[in-house]
Amino acid sequence: MKTIKIGILGLGTVGTGVARMLEKEKDLISSKLDAELVIARIADLDIDTDRGLTISRDRLTTDAFAVIDDPEIDIIVELIGGETFAKECFERAIAKGKHIVTANKALIASHGNDLFRRAAEQGVDIAFEASVAGCIPIIKTMRETLAGNTIHSLAGIMNGTCNYILTKITCEGSSFEDALAQAQESGFAEADPTLDIEGYDTAHKLAILNSLAYGMKVNLDDIYVEGITRVTAEDIRFADEFGYRIKLLAIGKRTNGAVEARVHPTMIPTDNLFSSVNHAVNAVNVCGSATGDMFLVGQGAGMLPTASAVVSDLVDIARNLITGAGQRVPYLAFTSERMNDLPILPMDEVTCRYYVRFMAMDKPGVLSRISGILGEYNISVRSVHQKEGAKGESSVPLVMLTSVAREKDMRQALADIESLDIIQGKAALIRIEE
């Protein structure tokens, strides 16, 4: 039986999960490959902690380059994370002719175009299923299953931390701070959760999926990103009264020779499938020309769900090695010659419906003044609710749902309204997707 040797860089949560799966499912994987996947070496800064593995001490090292340079190793599994040292390891592995499996969405989103070019020149496979949505096979679905479909749109809940926090606030009435603390205690959020709660982690994933969907070069810089830190329990309660849930969505739509690419809190109807995706679960919806809407859901993070995606990529590359069919599937679904520079639509030009909450003075004429300004920017109001204010307060929450409007018009109207002496503070704005 053929032996394929693997080197793992990074023995954190996911790296440990990969090693455990390769040990536990050794016979199962061999029966599907007719070959044996063997962990030849593992590199990590901490090689003393007992992680419950049967890896012998002589296969552990603190030197990642020693693993990459090992001539017997066929595939490198990069689970270091980050964009600096991981990029050095990537480039060295490619130069050595090693195939690579990674879960590093930040690296692919920021440097994928260059890394894929280098890998193609060296005849090296790069697989990155685990970089987006945990165990959900969205990369394989986009690259292979939907090969005959024109992709019209995609949307996803792709950050378990944000979804966990919003679920806690929605279902249990938790404060943002308490929900975040619970997410950290449960292992769903990092000690520094900035990348998650500010939406950047989701943007990395959207950049990758847009490229796969639309044949465009990976473009992270032009994605509009807004996190969940300004979503309040009050807004979540009002959304529920209108028949909506609030989720952090990544949205990619083909429109008029460009692609909408945006990450932001979004109100969606309670009968939409995304509304029932709770806690740390992820979900992705893809609309194809032949398939219509496809909805994929599963664990978006965690040791074994993410490790499952890594092992899937290892098996794919191993099959390529066995059959001599390397680079059988283009990295980003389209051949490099057919990749394009499709632009991302400026956020000012995006159109959608909006939820807006003002703190307005409780006196006659307020609504007409606000509606008048909205009308000046061609924004019509579909419904208005004026809520009771706190006892002794002179201002009350005024909540509006608009018809479809252009983002630029909405922003300019809000600036004018916020300058009125009848309005206190900044308005809350959440986009609505039906």
Based on the model shown, name its key terms.
single chain; 434 residues; alpha/beta; Rossmann fold; Dihydrodipicolinate Reductase, domain 2; Alpha-Beta Plaits; eleven-stranded mixed sheet; six-stranded parallel sheet; 14 helices; 17 strands; elongated
How would you characterize this protein structure?
With 434 residues, the protein is of the alpha/beta class. The chain folds into 3 domains: 2-133 and 303-330, Rossmann fold (3-Layer(aba) Sandwich), CATH 3.40.50; 138-299, Dihydrodipicolinate Reductase, domain 2; 348-432, ACT domain (Alpha-Beta Plaits). It is built from 14 helices and 17 strands. It has helices at 13-24, 26-33, 64-68, 85-95, 105-122, 138-145, 160-172, 176-185, 194-197, 200-214, 233-242, 303-323, 366-376, 407-418; strands at 2-9, 35-43, 60-61, 75-78, 99-102, 126-127, 151-157, 224-225, 244-255, 258-269, 281-288, 292-299, 351-361, 381-386, 395-402, 405-406, 423-432. Strands 7, 8, 9, 10, 11, 12, 13, 14, 15, 16 and 17 form an 11-stranded mixed beta sheet that branches. The protein has a 6-stranded parallel beta sheet with strand order 3-2-1-4-5-6, sandwiched between helices. Strand 14 (381-386) and strand 15 (395-402) form a beta hairpin. Helix 1 crosses helix 12, helix 4 packs parallel to helix 5 and helix 5 packs parallel to helix 10. It is elongated and about 80 Å long. The model has no long low-confidence stretch (mean pLDDT 95).
Short description:
With 434 residues, this protein is of the alpha/beta class. The protein folds into 3 domains: 2-133 and 303-330, Rossmann fold (3-Layer(aba) Sandwich); 138-299, Dihydrodipicolinate Reductase, domain 2; 348-432, Alpha-Beta Plaits, CATH 3.30.70. It has helices spanning 13-24, 26-33, 64-68, 85-95, 105-122, 138-145, 160-172, 176-185, 194-197, 200-214, 233-242, 303-323, 366-376, 407-418; strands spanning 2-9, 35-43, 60-61, 75-78, 99-102, 126-127, 151-157, 224-225, 244-255, 258-269, 281-288, 292-299, 351-361, 381-386, 395-402, 405-406, 423-432.
